[in-house]
# Entry
Amino acid sequence: MTAPAPESQARRGDRPYHLLRAAQALFQRDLGGLDPDQRGRAERLAAQTLAVEDLILSAPEAGACVIGTPAVDRALAEVIGQFPSPQAYAAELAGTGLDENGLRRALARARPTCGSTTSSTAIASAGRSGARLGTC
# Structure
């Protein structure tokens, strides 16, 4: 078995987004509200969803996917809407080391709009494996 490749810069930059998403999905809490066991579970889920996302986006069919600004704007509004206030949203971003531009990049990567059935099928099948990556 070969050793895993080192994390790319984009992959490391998307990790806080996946961690935030995992904390919300598993516990409906921000990272600061997790106990050590919950944090560990969120870390594992984040690593899994990031790995699945990387596999999908490295597929040849992913070349037909483009990132649409309106979709990223809607996704960002969804994320912000999960927080009780703008201050809570800003605090959570600061606590994860993620800024809004980094979050937008992660959302764009996680929510492509695909121009081919093959790409749609690839991303939809990943969704069945437990990764919520968006739809095409």
Summary: The two ends are 33 Å apart (CA to CA). Confidence is low (pLDDT under 50) at residues 1-10, 114-136.
